[in-house]
Amino acid sequence: GENVEQHPSTLSVQEGDSAVIKCTYSDSASNYFPWYKQELGKGPQLIIDIRSNVGEKKDQRIAVTLNKTAKHFSLHITETQPEDSAVYFCAASISDKLIFGTGTRLQVFP
Amino acid sequence: GAGVSQTPSNKVTEKGKYVELRCDPISGHTALYWYRQSLGQGPEFLIYFQGTGAADDSGLPNDRFFAVRPEGSVSTLKIQRTERGDSAVYLCASSSTSGTGELFFGEGSRLTVL
User: A31 to each of A23, A69, A104, B27, how far by Cα in Å?
Assistant: First the structure.
């Protein structure tokens, strides 16, 4: 079945710096790759997604890139702010379900 | 509008007891998912409903776990003979599509088995 690996597990940055989180997946049939943000005590919330026919997508300070050949995709957050501090999960869709990575705890220091 | 509602938010039980966790999805969402999240881990897929039927239950860890969605709306996750290893946050999500659309998650039910 699909396996999603995510790195790093923790990431600390200074406010205003950029943050990059990387994921790899195993099943070439996966065609949808969302990113979710989870704050303490809350359920995950979608922040951006990308489909397999697109290589890059941007939404304000957040961008996602996809390399289908290499089976990896990345989340880029620019001009980080303290409110970006949370746990971020990548996911890959296979057979109508999402398989999640293990998460990255991002801390943005003022 | 109302989001996905899960009850109870916290459940403490003793080893061997039976537990039911309830999920009330967003109105009109036909797809409903159950995930389990252990501390420091990503959500782990358990089961997926399309309407009333379980379209994929491949993530249920064993036959102590069962889920129903009899009228295509509210779903109940049932765990028999609970074990300490079942302790986790159980997340429910709903979607207007399946697989390649946004999942709307509830806040989860935290289960602690003593």
Answer: 14, 12, 22, 27
